[in-house]
Amino acid sequence: MNTDELEEAVYSAERKVRGMQTKLHRWAREDPDRRFDDLFNLVSDPAFLLVAWDRVRGNKGARTAGVDGRTVSRIEVVQGIEDFLDEVGSALRDRTFQPLPVRETMIPKANGKLRRLGIPTVRDRLVQASLKLVLEPIFEADFLPCSYGFRPNRRAHDAIAETRHFAMSKYEWVVEGDIKACFDEISHSALLERVRRRLGDKRVISLVKAFLKAGILSEEGISRETHTGTPQGGILSPLLANVALSVLDEHFDQHPGGHHSTDTVRRRRKRQGEANYRLVRYADDFLVLVSGNREHAVSVRDEVARVLQPVGLRLSEEKTLITHIDGGLDFLGWRIQRHRKRGTARHYIYTYPAKKSLKAAMAKMKTMCRRMDTGQPLDSLLRQINPALRGWCAYFRPGVSSATFDYLGHYTWWQVIGWIKRKHRGITWKHLRHIYCDGGWWINTEHRELFHPGRVSTTRYRYRGMNIPTPWEAAVD
């Protein structure tokens, strides 16, 4: 199959898959108690497998092999896409498909500790991607608006905008939730029980269970069984984690003074000295916003711990904090805090890059400049730095970020200048500016200039509230 034929086949398959997903989503929304049967045929359907392959091929990890040593490119060259998809489809249909253990690798976290990342084989990634295409439209019909992580059409900026919106509406006390090793400790039995509420196809449930129980092969070559958790790195893991963590969303949806309460009920509770609550969740990071006092926040923190216990999860006592909006909090890389506006007596909620995020960006710039061989041209260094700076600024653009952008821009400028001075020992400022700044002060080459964060204009992210459609609702419209 040549490139043009593959693109045409993928386009045709995507239209078929989108149509089926739209039906699944509509049926799930129209009947919240419906249990879906005969989904396994969709998972093994050639169209679903082809779209799944396109997603796997386009992921960053396409060049990373699992325990079988095969990458996407190797499969394309050695076996061929058609033969590979036929082989996987046949294995699914005749029930001989069995997931292999994930290859464990340890990656550094921002705090210096290590985080486990599980890398499934390409074959397993393909089946997980097909499973996700089938299951996501169904579970999205049940997921509540308060969660934003790893969901279509939703992003971290929505979670930040919602936090700011309710903080301005007198939800001033905040429980900053931190779940211990969430992806490692989710109870398989509790998760599968929640999956069975929507799925009646035992073959699909067995396939999900097989992925959960696939096991881990450590960096030392030691095999371990998996009795809990969903390995980070798997395509299906974020969806399954959301299924488990939705117990929290459902709890606050029906909580007295929670999401489902009317304005009249909230006002009455306020007059009676009772609190109102809002949950904002992004995967396993969440905030409980409390319109009340600190005692109410302490009480709801203990309540959250009890809600999470049946799904095998625990709150970290050290990292689960109770803060007031005047003291500020860090969430998803942002600092959210109420300040007095300079020159006035008015106070506003401001969002801007957290110090931890800025330090991480600075460390990244420093590392790039230290690791780049001074024998390379400056253009090679700028090709690495510019995309990183551009992406960081794009994330923090909808906030009060101008001062931070200026600071990061000048810090990066000095790091690049240091690299140039190591490249040309004893170079004078006049000579450096003539060669690398065209006689001015900003660094550039024949092909590009150093990206300047300080020139990025900031904006305001519009709070979308409940008006975030799923891709399948948009398809219906």
From TrEMBL:
Keywords from the UniProt entry:
Nucleotidyltransferase, RNA-directed DNA polymerase, Transferase
Which intervals of the chain form a coiled coil?
none
Which residue windows are transmembrane per the record? none
Question: Per the record, a Pfam family?
Answer: GIIM
Query: Listed GO molecular functions?
Result: RNA-directed DNA polymerase activity
Which top-level group of life is the source organism from? Bacteria
Pinpoint the Reverse transcriptase domain residues: 88-336
Listed InterPro entries: DNA/RNA_pol_sf, Group_II_RT_mat, GrpII_Intron_Splice-Mob/Def, Mat_intron_G2, RT_dom
Protein name as it appears in the record: Group II intron reverse transcriptase/maturase
